[in-house]
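[SOLVED] Need 3D model of a two-part complex

Original post:
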Amino acid sequence: MNIDNVKSQMRKGILEYCILLILNNEKAYASDIIRILQEAKLIVVEGTLYPLLTRLKNMEVLSYEWIESVQGPPRKYYQLTAQGQAVLTELGTAWDEINETINHLKKI
Amino acid sequence: MKKTVTANLNGRVFNIDEDAFQLLENYLKNLRIYFRNEDGYDEIVADFEARIEELLSERVRLGYNVISIEEVEKVIAKVGSPVDFDDKEENRTEQPKAEPADTKKKFYRDPSNKLLGGVCSGLAAYFSVNELALRILVVILALCTSVIPVLLLYLVAWLIVPEATTAEQKLEMQGKPITVENIGKTVSAGMDEVKKINEKHGCLGSLVDFIAACVKVALVGLGCLVGLPILFVIGIIIIVLFATIFGVGTGILGGLLPCTPDIFLSVAHPGIAILAVCLLLGIPLFALLYGIISWFFKLKPVNKSLKIAGLIVWILAWIALPFSGFKADWSKVNCSNNHWRFGYSSFYSNELVGNGVLAERTEELPNILSVELTGNLVAEDIQGAGTVFTCFCDNSPQPIHSTAKQRLSMLRIDCLIGTHCSPSNIPSA
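Solution:
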């Protein structure tokens, strides 16, 4: 069994949930999301995120708007849609369940 | 010192080193291939481009005006290459099933392992054999065939066979299926390659590039050198053909050809013959010219179906030609005065002696000895191609031997005393 692989699979599993959490309170643009995820060591390379964001947008979990930037061209700011909110809640429940299970198992 | 180019990334202009540009372009190209099956593929690639622009802008803001290859490498390492995006796990299992048709092999030149033009390395990849072994084999083959044929083949392959530049082409070259995983691998290998080439440029690489460029230029020069005389000859043949068919006479050729302008072509169906010859000569000529021109001006390569159509028409023309009754009688082309230099034995001699052939003197003028070989003699039939005719001459210090190389029905020799005579070839009625 490859420990690293298992760990990365775990992180990958919660990546979508984390993105939704980051976008829960405020809209953010891709680089902000990347920074937060990298600080949390959830992703290694940035490229992982772009296809994921596009996929979430296509699923209508996220939407984005172009906002002018002082430094350069306009940036894409992502935010949760109503459907995204619902998904977030659902994922939150799922996470709590998993957490509970793990905690329970740890105590055995 | 390095050459830089300007690149437009996400609407912003950057000055970027040429090698760095190459690397970046390759990277984006490969990303496009990697994500080509995704929904919103344009958007994903645009996101990547925007991010790269952002990272590079940051660099420019810090005062680095020119983007170097190290910068681009750093950016790519940060953003990651497809092999790192293993979030596509779910796609992977179905991918090989979806694209089994893509495993066909194609012959490309391999730029990553090239010594000269990458022909051998491409061939080695095509046949999945060791390239060193193949190179040695080619060299041995070249030495065995007195170098020229193999060299020509190599050069032609160099010009014609495309180079494998994208990840897709590289996979095709090796006959690997074009799957996302494979492309990812190739892309990350490609990064090292650009680096390697970049390092190589410092010493040996530039020399090799220079030699390669010289060889290509020389090749085009050679093409012109060989091509122009061929064009000339083709032109003459067409004129002769027309002249023969329309009975204009071939007198106009007297000035053009170093030959006796005898009619040497016979045609039963002139229309077919003209068409066939024009196609036979025209198609390869057009292909050659187009090849040379497109090499200089970067024209679009000719459509594949057009190529095949051209080839079929060309083969048909070959088939049609014999049916037109077109026949060139080369023995009637007296192209060289050298073959028939005759001295002669004596003014008083009535005989022309040569390997048992006896010719009688039939006519005598005050200072001209005219000898006719009678009896419908065919020189080749007597002693083979090596038959030697010798005319002895008192006035000539040494006899001049002549080898019968042409098939003759009759030979008449008109000679002025004291000079070398030039025989004229009289076609038999």
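Edit: The two ends of chain B are 78 Å apart (CA to CA).
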